[in-house]
Amino acid sequence: MSDYNFAYLDEQTKRMIRRAILKGLAVPGYQVPFASREMPMPYGWGTGGVQVSAATLTPDDTFKVIDQGADDTTNAVSIRKFFENTAGVAVTEETEKATVIQTRHRIPEAELNEDQILVYQVPIPEPLRFLEPRETETRKMHSLEEYGLMHVKLYEDISQHGDIATAYAYPVMVSDRYVMDPSPIPKFDNPKLEMSAIQLFGAGREQRIYAVPPHTKVVSLDFEDYPFEASKADHPCDLCAAEDSYLDEVILDDAGNRMFVCSDTDYCRSRRAAGHVGRLGTELGTEDAA
Amino acid sequence: MYVAVKGGEKAIDNAHAWLAEERRGDTSVAELSVAQIREQLSLAVNRVMTEGSLFDPDLAALAIKQSRGDLIEAVFLIRAYRTTLPRFGATLPVDTGGMACDRRISATFKDAPGGQVLGPTFDYTHRLLDFKLAAEGEVVPVETGAPRCGPTPHITEFLQGEDIIQREPESDAVPGDLTREPMEFPSNRALRLQSLTRGDEGFILGMAYSTQRGYARNHAFVGELRIGKVPVEMEIPELGFAIEIGELELTECETVNQFQGSKTEPPQFTRGYGLVFGQSERKSIAMALVDRALRWKELGEDNLGAAAQDEEFVLSHSDNIQATGFLEHIKLPHYVDFQSELELVRKLRREAEERLKGEFTAQEAAE
């Protein structure tokens, strides 16, 4: 793949994306339009994140890609391979060793530091989209800080279901100004949005980039009498016994038996390496992880 | 016992190897060459070039071969290749008035300077399967005539001479480029036309058809449909003048639409415009109808609330590469979001059941 420029995109395009990223960082939570390019992977499969990563990576970076928290899901493998081929950067599965992490639908469990950049793949960047389908209208609503519709929606959820019926892509208020879609992360991850690392969000098909700078105030929308609650399955991980990580539910047999495992594969692996063993786990190294 | 789903990388490699085998099909059957596709499936090649926004019949044919005939996949390959190409500059606008027409018809005038030229068309063929083609596809040589050399002026020019058709505003402004700038609404006609040319043929056809069936009807006549080659010229700064750098085959359609007049415009005919690569008549006519429907504001017409009048709706959903990518991404794992939904639905159900039980006992107590 040496026919392509470093990280696939040409330098002019990367500059254009970097300008959008800088603008995004300067106005936290604001969706910056950018001239998204067609990438050699389909729209909806992380082209926004890939373009942001391409504009962010330097030859010295160490890159990690997760999808649903896991390094080994097919699309994560595919994106990691793409940058291995086009940028020749070092890759890792270990959260601490990565300098740039591209993610879909999760924030890693391990706390990120100020030398790291977290790049989110975003399908629909507009938090108001399913309340108002027109971009012309939603942009107006953001510029006027007119978020009543969102609060009415949350209120109606409570009056109908007794709860806010949003489990992922839970809207947040960034820096007391813009309502932002944190991408479809489970709301369990929302409190982690206030972090030391730079967070960049790329939506390729929708041609938008937005950002949350380090240590920025990010508040999940709620009401005084119905405070936001980060929820997860009420179990420990069956492999590493973690009580504090987001869990995937795995169906074991047709009798309805299930097990719960960390969605963050690196977190689970590192805990097991440290000797933690869950209900159905074995000590690391004794099983054949084929 | 749970076995971690590992080995994504190996699975991907194997899937790709299998795909390559399926693409080739039965190896006892001769392999298709790119030249065969280019020459014998040229309408598919045209569609891929138009929606891929790249005029290169060989690359389009290669994309069709690689995509196993899935034309949207082929368009995708071309688009992804196109983004990597450097831009040297822009050509001068092509002059379709000077087109060497293979086909040129008008539905509005029985005859006009330049004549009606039927050309290679499926029109008036009886759609009967030709079983002879299954055995051999050789064509018998047919009589040829001397090419007509006179000019073929646009039909709408005659209407313009009478000042009975809307005049297009003239402008030397450089049009925007939707592949280099993010789309913003409201957009303008140049960007709309770019978007319609690149748009999915099926989507544009459906939108155009909806206007014919009464959703923002704008009764269109095909004023003219012309297919042929035009030279492409580019100004070379070192030379100081324009030189011809190649030629393009284009289909151009201009519709002439009935118009009763509005608050701002007198009664006159109005226009819709379609331009695509190669011979792609259906696409160019459909494009012209949708273009006309989208011009309601500029002509002072009423917004009838029809989908084809809605610029944001049409332009946001016409691109099949965007659409298919987002549609098919739901194949990707979503177990994290699904898990959170699962927990939410369980919780809501538990609460609803408790509520019901509470009401039931309250009712029992009351009785």
UniProtKB/TrEMBL annotation, chain A:
Its EC number is 4.7.1.1. The keyword Signal does not apply. One of its GO terms (biological process) is organic phosphonate catabolic process. Keywords: 4Fe-4S, Iron, Iron-sulfur, Lyase, Metal-binding, S-adenosyl-L-methionine. It comes from the Bacteria. It is an enzyme of class 4 (lyase). InterPro entries: PhnJ. One of its GO terms (molecular function) is 4 iron, 4 sulfur cluster binding. Pfam families: PhnJ. Signal peptide: none annotated. The keyword Phosphoprotein does not apply. It catalyses: alpha-D-ribose 1-methylphosphonate 5-phosphate + AH2 + S-adenosyl-L-methionine = alpha-D-ribose 1,2-cyclic phosphate 5-phosphate + methane + 5'-deoxyadenosine + L-methionine + A + H(+). Catalyzes the breakage of the C-P bond in alpha-D-ribose 1-methylphosphonate 5-phosphate (PRPn) forming alpha-D-ribose. Belongs to the PhnJ family. This is Alpha-D-ribose 1-methylphosphonate 5-phosphate C-P lyase.
